[in-house]
């Protein structure tokens, strides 16, 4: 019998506790599949006395995860502490410095320090594995880093934040306002008390940077991501999208263009008949467009203790089996610097919703501003809302053919300056999907 | 620089030619990702003089793939000959006997000889990799064999045959009959001159046996698969499905039940709002239900030279990187015998379409036969078709609550014996999806 793989787990929250329990309960099956037994021999958590429903009698306990990583008698270090700095970063560095492979679920750590950690790992002949860091239990890291290695990727995009997708789904199905929906999501535990990180698009942006690096062989660059959250999505937009044959999703997109690589997180209109439009609730999905394959889509649970533990286990079992793939898919020296494509150069169709004062000449004026910016319109709809007959303002919805972000912004600015608008203009990008 | 991985390719059809071309064109990128260069050093094909658009000046040529496998100076053998017996089987055996890793796209070979080849590979410390054998470019083999190793699978199901899915999609969208659709598919090259292997469900059954083995750690058993093709699907069924909120797909399903594992390929009604219902045309999709993850879905191109070559390349690059996963996910000695769950014990809802003579008492008689077999009905619809007012027969559509296959068959037999039917009864299983 081969010797067991001795695992140190730092962080015994939901995922860590699931992991320790699963290895205890399913150890025999895992040993068969990995070719050697797994054994959690060291753990670290803040509160030693808390009841986690686990038998933790045999493991060595560390109060400090960094000490565990630096000193425990282990073959593999699992970082489930969280946070991009502090203990998580120090512990991962300490483990890699000893040449230990590291498994982490920490997207923030990778978004901020992924390249530095990949370099450290390469120097020490170790690896960092992080399937759980993006889209929970969906094997998108393995797919990009291994299965699609023969392909050139042109775009990777997905629904990477369950909170936002849950909220958009509820707004659509129940006709709730953004505010009502947020309260509900907070009550159900799908949104944090301070929801900014999720609904502002920042969580998705962190995850996107990792996918971008794997898809394009480039260094991770969090600062360059264009981020727009779902806060300004109104019920009217969701209804209008449905009427037009679209659904609204918070998409994270990395796309190769002539001027570089776009990284963008924003609400997007996707065709209602597309596969990604069917992804509802807290489910995540990632699609990859490549030269050889065309497009593939992966969908599944993006969060949850067991789903995340499943991804951590996948990494552990790979390492136990002897699999060694470079942390970011390439030797760090072969990663190319990230070349940013500016958002102003983004090309696509746009949905624009204007609240206009209902008077003679408004339409002509709007149409002229569009034409001045070389924007051709696919449709223009003015609709009085029921019960608003007596109102002096009217919503106007424009759908453009493919144009540039810069042109759309100039046109909207010009229309605003013309003084026809009674409220803030809204713009939602249309993501072209086959 | 590490030494190149010397590859022998037997079979230079669409996939083989794509593979050789890609390795020539993208070799540098592949070398970075795999950590060593790839080099096709030996090839075999029937016709040496055929123009394949490839520069084949430097490779050693073999007329016989078995000789290539047995004698060429290579580190890896790629089998793209096809067929479950003869040269493909002998060549793979010859390569494994030398301890060479083998990459194949050959579903029939695996369905018939997968366990024997896994055993031979294990004895020789080699592996057989076969991502391309199921669902083309979708990484379902890697997902089951590696990414989901921490999970227990309860069901794996999918759309594994592009010909059938194309035809069902066209029948639905264009209102074509099965016969019209088949002619069109043959004209477009989506169906063979003899289409039995595809439309009869046998191609999907071959692929399913491989997924079953990986999902449940069991031996491959092709004989036990219940197979029903799409030949008897009529336009009326597709219309009725749409009215009831379903779509009809040819599904391949392996499912753990109390009495064993069901392996079944048959047309199935799936909820129109489900992700798998959106999979149209020649696209394939596979979903996996597990204990930790809930459900994940993978969708993408199921065939085509480049998509299949992408999967073959993924296997080659894994082997070049040193990845070694047991052929069927477990050491062959640990595979359990396949324990068949009989189709008569299958539980689910059923759609039943009867053509009845339109006379007094028919409904009562049908309802009684259902009740006698303890089948409760969710709905019963009788509809006169437009233009059929003068006809003496009427279609009756029944949707049952969950019941057993045996009960449904008994009820239909009894109704047939009662003499009320003017045509063959039709039955389509409803696949429960979340």
From TrEMBL, chains A, B:
EC code(s) of this entry: 1.1.1.3
Binding site for L-homoserine: 192
Binding-site residues, NADPH: 107
Domain ACT: 351-434
Residues at the catalytic site: 207
Pathway annotation: Amino-acid biosynthesis; L-threonine biosynthesis; L-threonine from L-aspartate: step 3/5; Amino-acid biosynthesis; L-methionine biosynthesis via de novo pathway; L-homoserine from L-aspartate: step 3/3
One GO MF term attached to the UniProt entry: NADP binding
Entry-linked PANTHER family: HOMOSERINE DEHYDROGENASE (PTHR43331)
Record-linked NCBIfam families: PRK06349.1 (NF004976)
Protein name per the record: Homoserine dehydrogenase
């Amino acid at each position: 019998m081969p010797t067991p793989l001795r695992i140190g787990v730092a962080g015994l929250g939901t995922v860590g506790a699931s992991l320790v329990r699963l290895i205890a309960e399913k150890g025999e099956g895992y040993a068969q599949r990995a070719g050697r037994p797994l054994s959690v021999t060291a753990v670290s958590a803040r509160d030693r006395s808390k009841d986690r429903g686990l038998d933790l009698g045999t493991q060595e306990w560390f109060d400090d995860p960094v000490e565990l990583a630096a000193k425990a008698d282990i073959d593999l270090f699992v970082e489930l502490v969280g946070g991009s700095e502090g203990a998580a970063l120090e512990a991962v560095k300490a483990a890699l410095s000893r040449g230990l492979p590291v498994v982490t679920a920490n997207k923030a750590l990778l978004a901020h320090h992924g390249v530095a950690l990949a370099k450290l790992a390469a120097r020490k002949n170790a690896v960092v594995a992080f399937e759980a860091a993006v889209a929970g239990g969906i094997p998108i890291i393995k797919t990009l880093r291994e299965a699609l290695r023969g392909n050139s990727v042109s775009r990777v995009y997905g629904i990477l934040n369950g909170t936002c997708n849950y909220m958009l789904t509820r707004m659509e199905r129940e006709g709730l306002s953004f505010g009502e929906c947020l309260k509900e999501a907070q009550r159900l535990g799908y949104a944090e008390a301070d929801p900014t990180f999720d609904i502002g698009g920042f969580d998705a942006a962190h995850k996107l940077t990792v996918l971008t690096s794997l898809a394009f062989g480039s260094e991770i660059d969090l600062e360059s991501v264009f981020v727009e959250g779902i806060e300004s999505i109104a019920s009217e937009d969701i209804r209008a999208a449905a009427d037009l044959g679209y659904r609204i999703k918070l998409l994270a997109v990395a796309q190769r263009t002539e001027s570089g690589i776009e990284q963008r997180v924003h609400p997007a209109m996707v065709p209602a008949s597309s596969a990604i439009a069917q992804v509802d609730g807290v489910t995540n999905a990632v699609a990859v467009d490549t030269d050889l394959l065309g497009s593939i889509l992966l969908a599944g649970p993006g969060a949850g203790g067991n789903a995340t533990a499943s991804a951590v286990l996948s990494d552990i079992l790979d390492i136990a089996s002897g699999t060694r793939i470079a942390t970011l898919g390439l030797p760090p020296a072969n990663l190319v610097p990230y070349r940013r494509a500016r958002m102003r150069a983004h090309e696509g169709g746009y949905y624009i919703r204007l609240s206009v004062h209902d008077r003679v000449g408004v339409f002509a004026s709007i149409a002229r501003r569009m034409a001045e910016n070389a924007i051709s319109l696919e449709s223009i709809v003015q609709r009085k809302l029921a019960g608003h007959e007596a109102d002096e303002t009217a919503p106007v919805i424009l759908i453009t053919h493919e144009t540039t972000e810069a042109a759309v912004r100039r046109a909207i600015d010009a229309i605003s300056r013309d003084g026809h608008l009674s409220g803030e203009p809204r713009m939602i990008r249309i993501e072209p999907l086959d």
